[in-house]
Amino acid sequence: MKKSTFKITKMDCPSEENMIRLKLSEFTDVRHLDFDIDNRILQVYHDDNLDSIDGALNELNLGSTLSDSVVSTDHDFDEETDQSKLLWTVLVINLAFFFIEMTTGLVSKSMGLVADSLDMLADAFVYGISLFAVGGSISRKKSIAKTAGWFQIILAIVGFAEVIRRFISGEELPNFSTMILVSVFALIANGFCLYLLHKSKSKEEAHMQASLIFTSNDVIINLGVIVAGVLVYVTNTRFPDLVIGSIVFVLVLQGAMRILKLGK
Questions:
Q1: Domain span at residue 195?
Q2: 62 and 92 in a common domain
Q3: What is the reported pLDDT for 184?
Q4: Which residues contact 197 (CB under 8 A, 6 or more apart)?
Q5: What average pLDDT score do residues 40-63 get?
Q6: Which helix (H) or strand (E) holds 54?
Q7: Which SS3 state, helix, strand or coil, does residue 134 take?
Q8: Secondary structure (3-state) at 146
Q9: Percentage of residues of the chain with pLDDT beyond 90
Q10: Which of 76, 128, 129, 242 has the least CB density, counted as fewest CB within 10 Å?
Q11: What are the two backbone dihedrals, phi and then psi, of residue 4, each rounded to the nearest 5 degrees?
Q12: Could you give phi then psi for residue 225, rounded to 5 degrees?
């Protein structure tokens, strides 16, 4: 078995890691992938087919360069089961709060809650692609990614259109108490996820770092919606809710574009 080391200059977040995993999953002789995102290094453990692996990485346009390829005696690449359990936990929590925040956002007329629910859904899609596509064909993985990405884009565009309509029209004020209460519960849920992820023995691995990043972003967004709810109460206007909703919709669009890249 060989260990080939690649320098990937544009691999600076977990989305690029998922793109690479998806791309190389079609090679049956790839035994293990070891990511060092901080240093932009990828080590590929494989039996053969180095030229094809190198070519596949170059197709991603992430600035991939082969550094070296040596014979390796490493063979123990068993994945720890707690990673999968934790990712399932985060996935279920994100899906649950997508439904909760979408429902309460529509009832309370809060675009901040609606946008935050879509951000939760975007994260759930990312985790779902990683979990459900394991062992599946490359075409199935790409199909899941494309469907999820376009679905997110459509929802975000509809959300932006609704924000514009509410800016123009005389829409009544959102229910600030519902905004704050639901966001506090979402903040507690995401805080619990962060606690579980930090407690994990495998938290330094790339997949777990991805979960930490996504969940940390959710915490920031939860705080933003809480602040918007307070400002709605203080200013007696709907504009703070529309502003935070617009910001989160932008984040949802960015997440959707990253998901679409997984389907290329």
A1: 81-262
A2: no
A3: 94
A4: 86, 90, 203, 208, 211, 212, 215
A5: 87
A6: helix 50-59
A7: coil
A8: helix
A9: 14
A10: 76
A11: -105, 130
A12: -70, -35
Asked whether 219 and 198 are in contact (CB, 8 A), the reply is no
- 76 within domain boundaries: no
Sign of CA dihedral 86, 88, 90, 92: negative
Q: What is the CATH number of the domain that holds 10?
A: 3.30.70.100
Question: Same domain for 101 and 48?
Answer: no
25: which 2 tokens? 């999953």
Q: How far is CA 172 from CA 33, 176, 232, 237, in A?
A: 53, 12, 11, 9
Residue carrying the six token digits 């009544």? 172
Whole-angstrom CA distances from 214 to 44, 58, 252 are 25, 27, 12
At which residue do the structure tokens 């200059």 appear? 9
> Average pLDDT for residues 37-61, to the nearest whole number?
86
Find residue 36's DSSP bridge partners: 41
Q: How many residues does the chain have?
A: 264
Q: What is the pLDDT of residue 80?
A: 46
pLDDT for residue 230: 93
In one-letter notation, the amino acid at residue 260 is L
Across 117-121, 182-186, 217-221, 256-260, the highest mean pLDDT is recorded for: 182-186
- Mean pLDDT for 20-41 is 80
